[in-house]
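Teaching assistant here, posting this on the class forum so everyone can see the example we discussed in section. The complex has two components, and the goal was to see what a joint structure prediction looks like when all of them are supplied at once.
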Amino acid sequence: MPTRRRGHPSVTPARSKNCRKRISTLGTTCIAQHISNPVGTAHPGFMKEHRMTNASNNPIVDPIQAGLAAGWKVIDAANLTSNLTLEADVVIVGTGAGGGVTAEILTLAGLKVVLIEEGALKSSKDFKMREAQAYPNLYQESGARKTKDKAINILQGRTVGGSTTVNWTSSFRTPPGTLNHWQTHYGLKDLTVDAMAPWFAMMEQRLNVIDWQTAPNENNDILKRGADKLGIPNKLIRRNVKGCWNLGYCGMGCPTNAKQSMLITTIPSALAAGATLVTHARAEKLQINNDTVDELLCHAMDASGLTLSGKSIRIKAKHYVVSGGAMNSPALLMRSKAPDPHNLLGKRTFLHPTVISAALFEQEVNGYAGAPQTIYSDHFMDTQAIDGPVGYKLEAPPLHPLLFSTTMAGFGEQHATMMKQFNHTQAILALLRDGFNENSVGGTVELRDDGFPVLDYNMSDVMWDGVKRALLTMGEIQFAAGAKTVYPIHELATGYTTWASAKQAIETLPYQASLTRVVSAHVMGGCTMSDDTKLGVVSSTGHYHGLTNVSVHDGSLFPTSIGANPQLSIYGMTARLASGLAEKLTGKPAPKLVAPV
Amino acid sequence: MTTSRRSFLKVGLFGAITLAAAGGIYRALKSPTPLNRFALDNEARVALAAIVGAMLQGALPATPAATDTAIAHTMEAIAGLPLATQKEVQDLFGLLTLGPTRRFLAGMPDDWSVAKREDVTAFLQSWRVHRIMMLQAAYHALHDLIIGGWYADEATWASIGYPGPIKELS
């Protein structure tokens, strides 16, 4: 851990590019250079430590393995041979962005913390950059979680670190327009841009959110060049990485521990300070007695993560923090029959419904290589009223064979032909800002008979209107950047070789669920925050209305979508809430989070 | 497979088609038995062999071994799904392999063992744009499980020019 953290965040473009090319031929020599001197800072202890701690040829120090060896309290519930009972000051359900930040703050405040995670504890030694392993091991429902009508595929993490372990590192503060909307419509008067700024600043420092210095990969640069040509303003995306190798496999777990996810930052810090982590444990129910929770009941999963092992874990705590993420947090509260007098729980769940345009280029794009997201445009967010026609943010997605092949519409010869152009294919995505227009109310989390959450989300006409405009924008950008063929991802679309033909097709395609490919990597809402109990189930301090000892700290709090990749919004918001909770529980000022030197 | 076949038969053909039209087929097929992992019986394997041939046409070599590989990868993709979803896939294969629903819902006149490629392609295309949302969803499930399973396999990467992750760390 200490050796790894000596790295400097920025990698010079030249070194990164050269080394990426040389790496296959020079192998470990180049890797050793990369590690020991990624930016000119010496790592004198690195290779020695590697020889001592890592039996394989992998030169990366794995902080999780080191921590386990040092005696962290980690219980894999899959191995339980009898039921388990634990006690704590605070139990936190979930280890993603909200749970991780909360765990570090509360533990450093001197509280005894237990963390519950349904997924497994995986670390860099497991992250082999292979989709076939990554999706079943690291994602909810094997990466195939779907809305109730099965029309929208939802990517959400299920592993220690939650979605932060598998996200693409894009870091944005909550847009001012979003905070203003919450103040106006949800009475969240404390959440001003100025009031939130110190929390974002603290988390940016803690997680090394930096301006990315390396040149964008071609997949992102095409977005930039096309947008520039059309006069569409665009910017560089900030990333939470330290000593990033620019490999491009963030979505499968960072193999070099460069990504400053919860997995390698707040959670190790909490564990080193004495917190307990229970993995393979599904939080089933908060036992509510009048207005107070007595204990949390969890079911142990088996090692496959698919079935229950039959063992249970009961945890008694003074306070319970629900950080399971959108869908899972409202579902836990619904299973627990938490008070919900205005029938709000699970409502207003948002997705940033995302549509994609692929395009063929003469040159190689190699969309799998290099930092996945480095360019964005908010032009179509900023140029219209936030509650008017639905705005959309433009970014590029990384292209890897499984995700790419399943995203591309059609089958048989036509699909195989597109796949043979994999290296020449570029893609742009547009994520739609749902929850602001009065006709965009989001979806509703329901419980199936077996207690699993399922999201009923219907795209309203205002959303489909945004989809059509987004597909037009993306196609135009791709042609402006020199695309030979553009493929709006729609079952009734084909490849279009001119902007005129693409435009005509996009304007006339039917926009319906399942025909238009819509995906989501950002589930938000369902436990709306508002001090008005008619508008939300959680107060602006994070406390669940009507329960004395339950808080919600995750993206389910957001009254609308964020309008940007949400990780930093969750970090900042939950740092604020967890600090308030720490002060309430200890009577002392909360610790400030600081990145280790 | 026998469990889902039996539960399907309980619902009855007429009822099943009516419910399919209402988009409620999966719920109707819900069996009271505990959830099990997906299992591929012989009939389902024959159906899947025909379907992977059409789905992966142009990518899948025309050999029995390649078909077996594609089926194995589809099975691997299914194996990672939650058991409730595996049950839905099981029910889907129940529908596909039962003669009357194969003919009426999938429009496949012949038994899967002698199914013509063009009929399978037409079946996939019809479900892809079907007015019954649940059949569209079934097409997408087959699409993603078969195609995703195929290209997840590194043996296929050379065919699309993908070099794979750097070997030193993978």
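For the discussion questions: The two ends of chain A are 11 Å apart (CA to CA). Residues 1-55 of chain A have pLDDT under 50 and may be disordered. Think about how each of these relates to the inputs above.
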